[in-house]
Amino acid sequence: MKDSSEFYGIIPPMITPLNPDLSLDVDHTEKMISHLIRGGVHGIFILGTTGESASISQDVKSDLIRLTCKMVLGKIPVLVGITGCSLIESLDLAGIAKDSGADALVAAPPFYVNIDQEELEVYYKRLADEVALPLMLYNMPSHTKISIGLDTIISLSSHPNIIGIKDSSGDLAYFQNLCEAFRGQQDFRIFVGPEEVLAASLELGGHGGVSGGANLFPQLYVKAYEAFEAKDFGRLRELQETILFLSANIYQNATYKSSYLKGLKAAMSLEGLCRGILAPPLFPYSEAEKEALRESLVKVKTKVEKSLNSITKPH
């Protein structure tokens, strides 16, 4: 029987702090991990989309896995992204994750190949057969150009090593169908990616959020999850409004398609949490763009602090 009960709540998709030569920035990585743990997060997900997994080297990936697991020391679960177009490279990362003490793996579909649902299902079954850690599916159709179908997920859920899914489609109807399909199977965990629908996804039956903004303000997202657990829906709505304010002011400051990641890393550099370096083909904000973001960040920090310190009146 699967034991997936340790996976719940807010599991930030941690950024990958980089040096100018694109090696792992160890000092800021250690700072980030301490920051997240102090913020009360329920797990850490490394090497996801926010971690720029498609753009960094295998060496950086292996260094990040080892360092993260060493620092976390089992305090909270560590989930490791192994998405790739090469099965062998994915299996190599899975092996490093197992040897380092990680708790689970996460894999989106291979993205530089045309595949259908049958091929995708066969691929995931082979991956789950060959890795030693539990595997979570990762639906990211905007990047992989294929959505994992509901029937495919239901079929894969019977595999003893597949424990859940992270859905970053942003499609609430799809997410609702997922939750309905697994309403009686709490061992299959369902997480949402886009934080803009965090509250709605929890109310639909999701088990938590893999929220990028929790890199900056982990406590905001943890408090939102705790409000949901306490059935304090007024408080949840208030905190969700603050999350939407953060999204509008940090992720949408320029016309780049990559403005989410540019804005997040720039804001984190202003907070001293990383250097703000992005792996090519992405590049960071200009100094002028960064200064404009600084003003937005001040507004966001003020609103976050106000939300965290407020007490919702009973209705």
Number of strands: 8
Number of helices: 12
Q: Kindly report the CATH topology.
A: TIM Barrel
CATH architecture: Alpha-Beta Barrel
CATH superfamily: Aldolase class I
What does this molecule look like?
There is one protein chain. With 315 residues, this protein is α/β, with parallel strands linked by helices. It has one domain: Alpha-Beta Barrel (TIM Barrel). Helix content is 47%, strand content 10%. It has 12 helices and 8 strands. An 8-stranded parallel beta sheet has the order 1-8-7-6-5-4-3-2. Strand 4, helix 4 and strand 5 form a beta-alpha-beta unit. Helix 1 crosses helix 2, helix 10 runs antiparallel to helix 12 and helix 11 packs across helix 12. It is globular and about 50 Å long. The mean pLDDT is 95.
Descriptive terms for the model:
alpha/beta; TIM Barrel
Can you summarize this structure?
The chain contains twelve helices and eight strands.
Secondary-structure map:
Layout: E1 9-10, H1 26-38, E2 44-46, H2 58-72, E3 78-81, H3 87-100, E4 104-107, H4 117-130, E5 135-139, H5 141-144, H6 150-156, E6 162-167, H7 172-181, E7 189-192, H8 198-204, E8 208-209, H9 218-229, H10 233-250, H11 259-270, H12 287-309
Parallel strand pairs: 1-8, 2-3, 3-4, 4-5, 5-6, 6-7, 7-8
Helix pairs in contact: 1-2, 2-3, 4-6, 9-10, 10-12, 11-12
